[in-house]
């Protein structure tokens, strides 16, 4: 009996010791978070504001923790203009409405036998679609309703997209996903989750940014699909309330340059919905990890804006906002080669090229780590016309 009690006591002490160690480590990251300096790129004086919003957000209409009104309040606190709500299999969502100065736009995330399909911009009700039905049924229903379909977290370990035919048909692709980053961190509790949790105690936005660790699979899959036709790249919040809505909205958003959507949005909710969803589907929206700074001054030039295509041999130009040297770098994937000046991309072969701007952001300790900042949709590279 005494030996059993002693063994139990040792076990309790061991567990407490581990918990205290983890709390101590979390406390260290919390202390370091107090020195994290945001933004990395300050807003230029007199810069014209871009329309900003969140895409792929869940509420209590499915598995989210906040009501639509609470989501709107969080979006307002984060400085957003709109939120695209995509509750699971919500085939009859409420109409677009203004709430607390934020436009709430109806969308949906459909569960299919091949994975999840997000959709927005429907002009008519979705018809002929059932939860967990065949993927082609869901894709056809969104198309018939006049909406834009997007492969939701298509290479995520949980619920990836598994149907090749519809993957090549759907125009949109979630390239980065805050929920995917969170799930990746759950698989790496000591190296990724614990630092983020510790930082969140002091600086919730920094805690979210510490989760941002892109992996190569989504980009490789995306570029493969983009070879055949122009594709829409979106960064998804896939927000459920954990991490907190406001922290996720402050860390990441989708933005429209003034030449695409001058703003302000119409006060008629239906008209404003059409403004946003058309701009969102245009491939000209920019994914911005907003904690790192505003995108004013950024531009990607040298391609046909209507088709989002450019011929082999063309050179894309990346216009960067004013910044401290050494804090930004252009990164290129696919059929492109970055020039030594770091701001021009020569297109090297048919296919697609992805050009992103990364920033030297606050790291887990007291140093810095490179993280994505500005993420446009890819440019499709087509063969040069004969004789040119």
Automatic annotation (TrEMBL):
Alphabetical list of CDD domains matching this protein: PHP_HisPPase
SUPFAM superfamilies, per database record: PHP domain-like
Location of the Polymerase/histidinol phosphatase N-terminal domain: 53-114
Coiled-coil ranges per UniProt: none
Alphabetized GO MF terms: 5'-3' DNA exonuclease activity; 5'-3' RNA exonuclease activity
Protein name, as recorded: PHP domain-containing protein
Taxonomic classification: Bacteria, Pseudomonadati, Myxococcota, Myxococcia, Myxococcales
């Amino acid at each position: 009996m005494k030996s059993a009690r002693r063994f139990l006591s040792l076990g309790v002490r061991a567990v407490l010791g581990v918990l205290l160690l983890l709390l101590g480590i979390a406390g260290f990251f919390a202390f370091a978070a107090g020195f994290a300096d945001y933004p990395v790129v300050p807003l230029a004086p007199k810069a014209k504001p871009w329309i900003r919003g969140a895409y792929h957000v869940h509420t209590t209409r499915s598995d989210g923790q906040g009501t639509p009104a609470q989501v709107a309040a969080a979006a307002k606190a984060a400085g957003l203009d709109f939120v695209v709500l995509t509750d699971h299999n919500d085939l009859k969502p409420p109409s677009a409405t203004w709430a607390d100065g934020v436009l709430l736009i109806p969308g949906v995330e459909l569960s299919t036998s091949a994975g999840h399909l997000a959709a927005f911009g429907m002009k008519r009700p979705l018809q002929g679609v059932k939860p967990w039905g065949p993927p082609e049924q869901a894709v056809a229903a969104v198309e018939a309703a006049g909406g834009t379909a997007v492969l939701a977290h298509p290479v995520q370990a949980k619920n990836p997209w598994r149907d090749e035919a519809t993957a090549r048909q759907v125009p949109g692709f979630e390239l980065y996903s805050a929920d995917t980053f969170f799930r990746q961190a759950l698989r790496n509790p000591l190296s990724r989750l614990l630092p983020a949790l510790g930082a969140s105690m002091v600086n919730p936005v920094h805690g979210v940014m510490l989760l941002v660790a892109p992996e190569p699979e989504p980009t490789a899959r995306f570029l493969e699909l983009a070879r055949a036709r122009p594709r829409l790249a979106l960064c998804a919040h896939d927000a459920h309330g954990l991490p907190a809505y406001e922290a996720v909205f402050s860390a990441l958003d989708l933005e429209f340059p003034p030449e695409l959507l001058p703003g302000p949005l119409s006060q008629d909710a239906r008209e404003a919905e059409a403004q946003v969803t058309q701009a969102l589907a245009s491939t000209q929206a920019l994914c911005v990890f907003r904690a790192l700074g505003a995108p004013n001054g950024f531009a990607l030039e040298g391609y046909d804006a209507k088709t989002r295509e450019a011929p082999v041999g063309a050179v894309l130009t990346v216009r960067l906002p004013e910044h401290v040297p050494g804090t930004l770098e252009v990164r290129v994937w696919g059929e492109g080669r970055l020039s030594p000046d770091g701001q021009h991309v020569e297109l090297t072969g048919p296919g697609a090229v992805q050009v992103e701007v990364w920033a030297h952001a606050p790291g887990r300790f007291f140093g810095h780590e490179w993280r994505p900042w500005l993420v446009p949709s890819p440019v499709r590279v087509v063969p040069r016309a004969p004789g040119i």
